[in-house]
Amino acid sequence: MYKIIQVAGWVRTARASGKEFMFVEINDGSSLKGLQAVITKDIEGFEAISKVTTGTSLQLKGTLIKSPAQGQLFELQVSKTDRGHGVKILGTCEGKTYPLARKGHGLEFLREKAHLRPRTNTFGAVTRVRNNLAFATHLFFQTRGFQYIHTPIITASDCEGAGQMFQVTTLLPEHNEPIGKVPTVEPPKEKKQKKKPVAAAAEGEEQPVAAVEEKKAPEPFHAKKIDYKKDMFGKPSFLTVSGQLSVENYCCALSDVYTFGPTFRAENSHTSRHLAEFWMIEPELAFATLQDNMECAEAYLKFCLQYVIENNLEDLKFFEQQYEKGLIERLKNVIDTPFRRLPYTEAVEILEGLIKEDKVKFENKVYWGVDLASEHEKHLTEKVFGGPIILYNYPKDIKAFYMKVNEDGKTVQAMDVLVPRIGEIIGGSAREENLERLDKRIEECKLDKQAYWWYRELRQYGTVPHCGFGLGFERLVMMATGMENIRDVIPFPRAPGQAEF
Ligand SMILES: NC(=O)C[C@H](N)C(=O)O
C-alpha cells in the first residue's frame, strides 16, 4: 500500500548520501516531528536541491512509504516515476546569514529574533500548546453555558484602581488640517423630506428615530473645527487593564459570561512573570458565591491541563526533556489533587510560624495586612503544600473596591489561586452587589463615584450576587509547558524595551 502525497514546509536538515540520493527533513509547524524525504538523483533539479540548506521552503510530491529507519513510521520517497513525483524550491534560504542555521540557540537570543523563533522546536511547541489552551478555554466555558462577551480595549475606566494604564492619544495634527489629500465634497441638491409619523414603539423597545430632520448638506471638510482630543472620546481614555467591569454588565443580564482578550498594564517591570500586554480570561458567574467561584476556577484550570495532556503529549514530552523534568507527572498531580483552600489569615500565620522557628528567611516582611510577595506565594505552594492552593478572605485594604466586604469589616471575599513556580495565576472575588456598601468602598478608596455611575446602576436595578475571576493566560501557558520566562510563551512579548515586531 502506498500513497502519493504532496507536502510543503521548511527544511530542518538536508544531507546528501553519496551522490545517488539525499535526505531532507521538512517541517510545516503542525507537529514537532518533520517528515523525512528521500530524494533520488534522477529527479528533475536534483543538482539545485542537493544544495538546499536549513530554512529553505520546499514543496515535495512523492510516495509515502513505511520507513525502514528507526524513530519514524513513514518517509517520503521522491524519485523519477510515472506518478508525478517532484521537488520545487519555493524560497531559498541564505545559509550564511540565516540566524537559525545553527542548532541550539539560547532563549534570550531567540527573543531578539521574534520573527523567526516560531520555526524552532521550542516555539512551535509553545504555540501549539497555547493554541490548545485557548481552544480548551472556549470549550470549557461554552459547554457550561457561558456566553463569550467582547469587552472594550479602549476605556475611560481603571478597573483595578491601580493607575497602571497606557493612555490612548491620537496622532492627528493639533491644527485641524486633515491628513493627506482632501476629497472635495459636493453638497447634494437640497431636497426636503416629508415628516413621517413616528410608529409607536413597543414597551421597552428602542424608539425609532423620527425622520423629521431635513437633510443638511454636509459641510466641506475644512469648514468644521474639530477638536480631535475632545471629539474622540470626550475624556482621557486608556487601554484596558481588565474586562471585568464591562463583563459584569453582561453578567447582570445574561447570567454566566466570560471575556478573553488582551489587557495592558503599564508596569515597568522586568520580571519573568510580567508583560505590558497580556491575555486574560475573565469569567463572571451570576447568582453565585465565592465558593462557586473557587470551584469554577479549579475545574477550569484542571480542564485546560487535561486537554493539553490529551492533545499535545508529544510537545509536552519535548518540554519535559528540554526544560522541566517530571512536567507531565506534575500536571497530572495538579489535575488529580483537590486544591487546598485556606484563608489568607491562616497562610500568614503559617509563614510567621516558619520565620519564628527560623525555618525560612524572606526578603519581604510577612505580617497580617501585607500583600504577599511572590517569594511567599512560592514558598507556600512549593514547600508547605506541594501544589496549587487557593487563598481567600484577604484584607480589604490591599484589594480592589468592588470586592464584597465580609462581616468582620476587615476582609473581603477575594480569592487567589497560587501555583508552584509561578505564584498567582488567578485572582478573583465575589463582587459587592449592594449599592450602599459599594458606595462606601468607592469613597474609602478615594475613587470618583461619578466615573462609576453605570457600574453603580447595576446595583440599583435588579442587583444579584455575582462573582468572577481573571486568569493570566500566559501564566497558564507557563504552567502547562514548564517555560520559565513569560516572554517565551507569547508570540510577541511587550515588555520594557521589547516592542519592535
Ligand atoms: N476579572 C477579574 O476578577 C480580574 C481582576 N479584575 C484583575 O484584573 O485581576
From TrEMBL:
E.C. code: 6.1.1.22
Organism domain of life: Eukaryota
GO cellular component: mitochondrion
Domain Aminoacyl-transfer RNA synthetases class-II family profile: from-to ranges: 128-491
UniProt-annotated stretches for the region Disordered: 177-213
Gene3D superfamilies: Bira Bifunctional Protein, Domain 2 (3.30.930.10), Nucleic acid-binding proteins (2.40.50.140)
GO biological process: asparaginyl-tRNA aminoacylation
Molecular function, one GO term: nucleic acid binding
EC class (word): ligase
One Pfam family here: tRNA_anti-codon
InterPro entries referenced in this protein's UniProt entry, alphabetically: Aa-tRNA-synt_II (IPR004364), aa-tRNA-synth_II (IPR006195), aa-tRNA-synth_II/BPL/LPL (IPR045864), Asn-tRNA-ligase (IPR004522), Asp/Asn-tRNA-synth_IIb (IPR002312), NA-bd_OB-fold (IPR012340), NA-bd_OB_tRNA (IPR004365)
Sorted UniProt keywords: Aminoacyl-tRNA synthetase, ATP-binding, Ligase, Nucleotide-binding, Protein biosynthesis
Stored PANTHER family: ASPARAGINE--TRNA LIGASE, MITOCHONDRIAL-RELATED (PTHR22594:SF34), ASPARTYL/LYSYL-TRNA SYNTHETASE (PTHR22594)
Family classification: Belongs to the class-II aminoacyl-tRNA synthetase family.
Name of the molecule in the record: asparagine--tRNA ligase
Native species: Halteria grandinella
